[in-house]
Amino acid sequence: MVQNSSTSIQGRMTTFSPVLGPVVLTALFAFLFFAPMMLNAGLLFWVGMTMIQAIFALSWNLLFGYTGLASFGHAGFYAIGAYFTGAALRYDFQLPFLVVLAVAGILGALVALAIGVVALKRLTGIFLAVLTVALTEAMAKIIGLSKALGEQDGLGNIPRPIIDLGFLDLDLTHSHDYYRFLLIATVVTVAALWWVVHSRLGRSFRAVREDAERARFVGIDVARVRVISFMISGGTAALAGALSAPWTRIVTLDQVNWLASTQPILNSLLGGFTSFWGPVVGAVAYTGINYWTRTFAGLSEMLVGGILVLVILLAPTGIVGLLGKATRRIRGNGGKK
Amino acid sequence: MTSQAVFVLFNGLASGMAFFLVAAGLTWVFGILKILNLAHGAFFMLGAYIAFTVGGAWPASIWSFVGVALIAAAAVGALGYLTDQLVLKRLRNVDYHYALIATFGLMLFCEGAAKFIWGTDYQAVMPPPEIDRAIVVGGSYISLYTLFVIGAGIAVFAALEMIMHRTWAGKIMRAVSNDPWMAGTLGINVPMVLMVSVIASFALAGFAGGILVPNQALSPHVGASFVLYAFMAVVIGGLGSIRGTFIACILLGLVESANATFLSQYGGIAIYVMLAVFLVWKPTGLFPAQGAT
User: Fold this and answer.
1) What is the DSSP string of B200-254?
2) Distance (Å, whole) CA A56 – CA A63
3) CB-based burial of residue B42 (10 Å sphere; 0-12 exposed, 13-18 middle, 19+ buried)?
4) Which of A282, B86, B98, B101 is most buried per CB count within 10 Å?
5) Domain annotation covers residue B270
6) Is residue B79 part of a domain?
7) Which residues on B lie below 8 Å from A137 (Cβ)?
8) Do A298 and B111 touch (CB under 8 A)?
9) What is the spatial distance between Cα A166 and Cα B206, in angstroms, rounded to a whole number?
10) Does the residue B291 lie in any domain?
11) Residue B140, beta-bridge partner list
12) Residue A34, Cβ neighbours under 10 Å: how many?
């Protein structure tokens, strides 16, 4: 039932009606834009982290939901971006902030290219999963030994940037200002990903996921498409990390271990990997669960773990899939074809 | 120099056998179910906590220590039955991604439950008094507990080899592992074989928890570090092959131990290099199992 591609495509098409989508998105943007005036500093921090986690989850789902490859070491890319940006700001590399972000993304994409060229052709399935986990762990070990990157203590005291646009300076040192920059960066990134998955390239991703053999017959270079998807995904994950460094103002090894790699997986599945917006919904739901259970040791893991198992067993298309099913039922065709 | 080499050898063998105690159940269940159980380390951790709760921090003798480990094995085996009925049974015919992610959820659940029941503080368990001392071998101090772990690993390996290659039950297991459909048409109760394998694998994890608990600071995260080594061993050895996993564990243990002694400023990195080399050189492992993806 899980691999049934026709239901997954149907879910993607019918989840949001053409009118509802833009209305929801506009309302969401308005709420997020005025959030600094309504929420206290603690809650605002959680909202900012949710946006970063949403980008991170979208980057993972581009690989899994669209191209059919699973990376279990995605935190490695996130950490590349976070550590590079942290170091660039802390040691003042004399680069404009936007360039720093771009370089972070390119670094992530280049590492993805290297892994893709060496491993993606030879390794599939569980071997790829274990390799990505192991590479991330190795990176954590190397960072843990590097003095410039703060060894086991992490890189702290990261200053927030000032963007020089030529005619005016955008001072992002106040958290409200950085928050708004983060919001705009999130919107731009999500829009770019939306464009990618709805372009010709995105269709070739899906063709490879559905049936690599047939995709090859119609002239798609499967290996190349997989590497490109891996690069976009890795670059976007690095960008999420890069955006996080000035927001949290500290980058630690907790963001590099293999448990951190599972965060985007959780969010994507919870929200529903068959929908473009699923990972975003999942990131919001996950932050909510964590926020309400944060004072009870162990409870949040039990809840998240339990929910994850239930989602896989009962509703593999996640929250968005359930919503889609519910709307179809309300409209009267009972979800049947 | 000799004393250092002896030290590296024994320490390496001991960590290798510790990895194997965890990896044995993992590779067994993979061989039969084709599911890489990410929650395996969490059940190992539960076994360690159960042993700590039943036996206390100061085991009276080596016999009670082993007895407690067997109780932990039985308890975790029972949990395995429960898990199989509730979760794993439903994952038999789905894409491996879903199985990986579901067992990951299971792992989170177990870690959360352990935090809930036992708290997040570190606990310590002593080795039993008979083996809580060191002897001198080749100019180097080797603790008897280290030798005990090596012995336990070899014993478990020998037992599994005997069962898999010398008994009727092992033959049935291998038949089901090769081709479950064909085995079913020959009148083998395949669901039963799958269930027994899961219970045995979980019991092995619980036993490993009981035996290895004196080795480390016990916390709800103790499983995560071990299971990563176990995964690496299973992948290097060839998924589902107990022999391959055994050899890979010894290699990993020796490389890790040599790395810690001779290149301590880069501690812990050599095994990842080794894994990467192996995956590129032999992408399907030392002893590729049939049907492994």
Assistant:
1) HHHHHHHHHHHHHGGGS-B-TTHHHHHHHHHHHHHHHH-TT-HHHHHHHHHHHHH
2) 12
3) buried
4) A282
5) yes
6) yes
7) 228, 272
8) yes
9) 65
10) no
11) B137
12) 10
Range of the domain at B53: 2-281
CB of B165 closer than 8 Å to CB of B227: no
Which candidate in A64, A111, A130 is best for mutational testing of the B interface (most B CBs within 10 A)? A130
Write the CA distances from B248 to A44, A153, B38, B194, integer angstroms.
49, 33, 19, 25
A186-239, pLDDT tens digit by residue?
A: 999 999 999 999 998 889 888 888 888 888 888 888 888 889 999 999 999 999
More confident residue, B277 or A125: B277
Strand partners, A170: A163
Q: Do A305 and B105 touch (CB under 8 A)?
A: yes
Question: Contact A298/B228, CB-based, under 8 Å?
Answer: no
Partner-chain contact A134 B232, CB within 8 Å: yes
Q: Domain with B205 in it: what CATH number? A: 1.10.3470
Chain B residues touching A303 at Cβ < 8 A: 112
In chain B, which residues have pLDDT < 50?
Answer: 291-293
Chains A, B: CB contacts under 8 A, how many?
A: 133
Token representation of residue B237: 């050895």
Residue A18: predicted pLDDT: 64
pLDDT of residue B290: 52
Under the phi-then-psi rule, with left for phi > 0, alpha for psi from -120 to 50, and beta for the rest, what region is A215?
Answer: alpha
Structurally, how many domains does chain B consist of? 1
Do residue A306 and residue B109 have CB atoms under 8 angstroms apart?
yes
Q: Is residue B248 part of a domain?
A: yes
